């Protein structure tokens, strides 16, 4: 009876497979080690770049930008936002508070219309907001079409201490809608710091009226103060999240004496 071979064909096959598997495993570990070595692959460099260049984005959005698959696209997205309301209600102060040092003085001198730009990084993409303010006096009516055409959001603003300016938002809304029916409508009550000095029953009456107006305009309502930087950034964050379907939600606040947010 012939002696069985020391290396059975099946055993030889198993050995070959094991060697191939070992080689593949080493290759796999090698590629992992390469990722952590000083010679980083391109993708890792991009992540580092994206996380350092995100300067003006709020924390929730910064977390989003760290996802590697979203960091390669450095395209610039230009979007227009317009801002309407009576004069002296705090529109320019609100914009200056948001835009800060990036305000383009050169573009802001045209009578009846102001234009300010702000660029921010969201999920690895550069977003440039052109924010158009219609100044609110009788002459500025001619600029409503220029400001509203192509806007992705329209901010209807009023002074919380002046009911007349709240009533006028309906007129601003009707005029804006002639030129733009798709923009996100936001109703903003300004000078919240002055408003909270009013008697509480008056605050309650104005807040209720503002909520009814917001419902009628199908708008989200914010009370804000440029002087104390209340809800200024939050309003733009809300618009950005809504436009780009970002996982960020605002909380409703209906407490009298606090800056109301209603939707
Ligand atoms: N108390 C208070 N005053 C404000 C606020 N925002 C603006 N103002 C004042 O309201 C006046 C008109 O502001 P401005 O921004 O020029 O209004 P615009 O005509 O609507 O652009 C100025 O005297 C501002 O200092 C605010 O948040 N609180
Ligand atoms: Mg102004």
CATH superfamily: P-loop containing nucleotide triphosphate hydrolases
Terminal CA distance: 91 Å
CATH architecture descriptor: 3-Layer(aba) Sandwich
CATH class: Alpha Beta
**Ligand inventory:** guanosine-5'-diphosphate, magnesium ion
Secondary-structure-based class equals alpha/beta
How are helices and strands ordered from N to C? HHHEHEEHEHHEHHEHE
How confident overall, as mean pLDDT?
76
The biggest beta sheet reads: 7 strands, mixed
Helical proportion? 40-55%
Shape: globular
- Rg from Cα: 28 Å
Number of structurally distinct domains: 1
Number of helices: 10
Question: How much beta, percentage-wise?
Answer: 15-25%
CATH fold-level label: Rossmann fold
**Low confidence ranges:** 8-73
Question: Short summary of the structure?
Answer:
InterPro entries: P-loop_NTPase, Small_GTPase, Small_GTPase_Tem1/Spg1. Helix content is 43%, strand content 19%.
Describe what you observe in this structure:
- The structure is a single chain.
- The chain is of the alpha/beta class and 263 residues long.
- Mean pLDDT is 76; it is low at 8-73.
- A hairpin with a 2-residue loop joins strand 2 and strand 3 (125-134).
- The relative contact order is 0.12.
- The protein has helices at residues 9-36, 42-53, 59-65, 91-99, 144-148, 163-167, 169-179, 192-195, 200-217, 232-244; strands at 76-84, 113-122, 125-134, 151-159, 184-190, 220-223, 261-262.
- The radius of gyration is 28 Å and the shape is globular.
- The protein has a seven-stranded mixed beta sheet with strand order 2-3-1-4-5-6-7, sandwiched between helices.
- It has a single domain, classed as P-loop containing nucleotide triphosphate hydrolases (Rossmann fold), CATH 3.40.50.
- Helix content is 43%, strand content 19%.
- The longest helix is centred in the N-terminal third of the chain and has 28 residues, at 9-36.
- Bound molecules: guanosine-5'-diphosphate and magnesium ion.
- Guanosine-5'-diphosphate binds next to helix 4 and helix 8.
- InterPro entries: P-loop_NTPase, Small_GTPase, Small_GTPase_Tem1/Spg1.
- GO terms for molecular function: GTP binding; GTPase activity.
- This is Septum-promoting GTP-binding protein 1.
- Pfam families: Ras.
- Keywords: Nucleotide-binding.
């Amino acid at each position: 009876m012939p002696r069985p071979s020391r290396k059975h064909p099946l055993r030889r096959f198993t050995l070959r497979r094991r060697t191939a598997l070992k080689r593949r495993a080493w290759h796999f570990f090698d590629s992992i080690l390469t990722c952590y070595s000083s010679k980083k692959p391109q993708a890792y460099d991009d992540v580092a770049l994206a996380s350092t260049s995100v300067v003006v984005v709020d924390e929730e959005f910064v977390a989003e930008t760290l996802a590697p698959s979203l960091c390669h696209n450095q395209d610039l997205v230009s979007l227009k936002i317009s801002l309407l309301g009576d004069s002296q209600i705090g529109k320019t102060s609100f914009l200056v508070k948001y835009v800060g040092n990036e305000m383009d003085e050169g573009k802001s001198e045209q009578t009846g219309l102001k234009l300010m730009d702000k660029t921010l990084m969201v999920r690895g993409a550069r977003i440039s907001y052109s924010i158009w303010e219609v100044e609110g006096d009788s002459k500025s009516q001619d600029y409503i079409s220029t400001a509203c055409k192509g806007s992705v959001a329209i901010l209807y603003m009023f002074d919380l201490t002046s009911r007349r300016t709240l009533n006028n938002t309906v007129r601003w809304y009707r005029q804006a809608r002639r030129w733009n029916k798709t923009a996100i409508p936001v109703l903003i009550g300004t000078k919240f710091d002055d408003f909270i000095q009013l008697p509480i029953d008056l605050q309650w009456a104005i807040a209720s009226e503002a909520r009814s107006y917001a419902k009628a305009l199908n708008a989200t309502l914010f009370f804000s103060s440029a002087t104390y930087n209340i809800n200024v950034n939050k309003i733009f964050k809300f618009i950005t999240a809504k436009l780009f379907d970002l996982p960020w939600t605002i909380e409703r606040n209906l407490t009298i004496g606090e800056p109301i947010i209603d939707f």
